[in-house]
Structure formats: C-alpha cells, structure tokens
C-alpha cells in the first residue's frame, strides 16, 4: 500500500487541478460552507463570536475561500494555503487577483503555498482553522491534526472534512467496482476512505490535543448527468491515468463501457450520483 509523500501530493494536485475545478469543486463547496459556518465566523454570528484570524488549509480552486471571504467580517484576517501552486493560481483567478499579487488588502486576505503537515506559522497564530477534503489525503493525518492544534490559540476551533463511508458514496466507488468485475486491480495506494470511521477520527483529534471533538456525516449529490460525463471526470485522475497507460486497449474499452452503463442505469432509476462526507469540529 503506497502512501504519497508531500512532494508527490504537490505534483498530483498540480496535474489534476483544472479537472478538479471543472468537475469536482461544485460537490465540495456545500461541505466547505458547512465547515465555515461550524466555526461561527459568519457576519450573522458577529455579535457573539469575534474571530480575529482564520487559516484555510488546502484551498483547492478556491470555492471555500470565496465563501469564507463572503461570510467573514472584513476585519477578520484570512490566510488561505495549498500545497499546489496550480491550485493557488486557480483560487487567485476565482478571486480576481492578478499577476504576482497574493493579497486583497481591503478584505484582510492573503494566499500562499505551503504543506499542511508543516505550517510556516507560529504557535497560537489563529483562532479558527478549516480544511475541506484534505486530511484523508496527506501523508500523515496525525501530523496535520497536530499542526492544526499547534497554530490555534487556546479556545480556537478547527473543522475538517474527509471522504465518508464507501457504501454511501457511489461517486467514488463505481470506477473500482467496475474494474473488479473484469478482474482489474486498482489497489495501488492507500484508500481515501481510510478516515471515515467516526470513532477513529474523533480519537485521532483528541490524541492531537483537542479537548472537544464533534463528528458527523453529510451527503452531497454530484451534478453528473450521464455516464460519459462521469467517465470523463473519474478516469482523468492522475493515478487512474497512469494505470490506463499500461492497460490493454480492449480491456480499457470494456472497463469504460461498464462504467458508463452502470452510471446511466443509476440515473435512469431517478437516483443521484454522489458521496458522503465525514466531518469533525474540534475545540482546543
């Protein structure tokens, strides 16, 4: 079982950044909104919660960043980060930031590239932290949790989301399921589902030092409308693309047709393609 290094993660998300933005970002945005509102940083909560500084880790193409900027008060500092420079650039484009500019001064906003497991900030630098669909991907989730704890001040709140339970996530299981039906083995790296156990992830957060950890599940439907569209999205993953390069063309054609037909059958029954997210809200 291969676990990607930070360097490999940076390369992977650089390759996949535009496809992720085009096809997957819309499904992650509702969970980003859930995390942001769980922090109590929105304008509606200003009378009872005076957040001074927020750190976003793994901003991706910027859906969560834009939501946070829209909902926080302007005096609250927001720093958004990602391990991939390509993702940083997509976020900047989304926010209308040009050239070498990495700040929106009037919004008290800054963006920079960094590794979630080795943050370049001093202890207690922030009172809020959120990371959408990253914790299950990093080399060491335990290290990422400890870093989140370290950069938060006492009483600070952090929110994370990861892939949920596979039985409730057909969006992320169809490709593998159809491969297994024709005896293709895709198990080359650690499963992104490895943190969906609520007891396990809660204990990991407590072990990192957090005093209060709430855990739950939520479901997000995908806008996928047909099997061809699904195959275009989920066969573009860098790991899958590497596998396809060494695959017999007839075998690939059979695999793809099974994926397309399976998705079309689900949609024809009036069911959505979608995925479950597991999320945690932690207090230091």
UniProtKB/TrEMBL annotation:
SUPFAM superfamilies: S-adenosyl-L-methionine-dependent methyltransferases (SSF53335). This is Methyltransferase type 11 domain-containing protein. It comes from the Eukaryota. It comes from Dictyostelium firmibasis. Pfam families: Methyltransf_11. InterPro entries: Methyltransf_11, SAM-dependent_MTases_sf. Residues 55-160 form the Methyltransferase type domain. GO terms for molecular function: S-adenosylmethionine-dependent methyltransferase activity.
């Amino acid at each position: 079982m291969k676990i990607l290094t930070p360097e490999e993660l940076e390369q992977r998300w650089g390759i996949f950044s535009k496809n992720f933005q085009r096809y997957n970002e819309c499904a992650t945005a509702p969970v980003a909104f859930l995390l942001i509102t769980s922090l109590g940083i929105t304008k509606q909560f200003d009378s009872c919660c005076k957040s001074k500084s927020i750190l976003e880790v793994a901003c991706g193409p910027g859906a969560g960043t834009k939501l946070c900027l829209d909902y926080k008060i302007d005096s609250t500092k927001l720093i958004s980060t990602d391990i991939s420079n390509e993702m940083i650039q997509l976020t900047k484009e989304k926010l209308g930031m040009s050239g070498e500019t990495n700040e929106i001064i009037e919004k008290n906003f800054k963006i920079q590239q960094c590794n979630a497991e080795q943050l370049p900030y001093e202890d207690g630098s922030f009172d809020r932290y959120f990371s959408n669909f990253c914790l299950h991907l990093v080399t060491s989730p335990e290290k990422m949790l400890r870093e989140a704890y370290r950069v938060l001040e006492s009483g600070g709140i952090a929110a994370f989301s990861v892939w949920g339970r596979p039985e409730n996530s057909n969006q992320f299981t169809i490709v593998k399921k159809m491969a297994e039906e024709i005896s293709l083995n895709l198990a080359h790296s650690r499963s992104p589902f490895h943190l969906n156990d609520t007891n396990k992830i809660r204990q990991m957060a407590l072990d990192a030092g957090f005093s209060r950890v709430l855990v739950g599940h939520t479901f997000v439907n995908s806008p996928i409308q047909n099997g061809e569209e699904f195959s275009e999205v989920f066969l573009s993953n860098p790991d899958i693309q590497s596998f396809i390069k060494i695959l017999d063309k007839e075998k690939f054609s059979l695999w793809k047709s099974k994926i397309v037909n399976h998705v079309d059958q689900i949609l024809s029954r009036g069911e959505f393609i979608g995925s479950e997210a597991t999320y945690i809200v932690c207090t230091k």
